[in-house]
Amino acid sequence: GKVNGERKLINLQDVIDNFCTLRRQLIQEKQATITVDCSTTIMSYDVPIVQIISNLLDNALKYAQPGRPLQ
Q1: Residue 1 pLDDT exceeds 80
Q2: Are 43 and 3 in contact (CB under 8 A)?
Q3: What is the rounded CA–CA span in Å between residue 12 and residue 49?
Q4: Which residues, 6 or more positions from 65, have their beta carbon under 8 angstroms from its beta carbon?
Q5: Are the beta carbons of 42 and 9 closer than 8 angstroms?
Q6: For residue 52, how far is the Cα from the chain centroid?
């Protein structure tokens, strides 16, 4: 689909930190640990990047094996 808006600098650490804040309860329920040290900044559209990273992390949490801590 068509992406609206302007490309801008996106700090990937901020995207991941925001995901962790929003999904804190699920992360705790799954006994997951998300640790990232990412100082990468990219030039892109923010909505698709946030969606991609959120989908990847959500799927990792959703499909984690029960009883096995996710790191």
Answers
A1: no
A2: no
A3: 9
A4: none
A5: yes
A6: 8
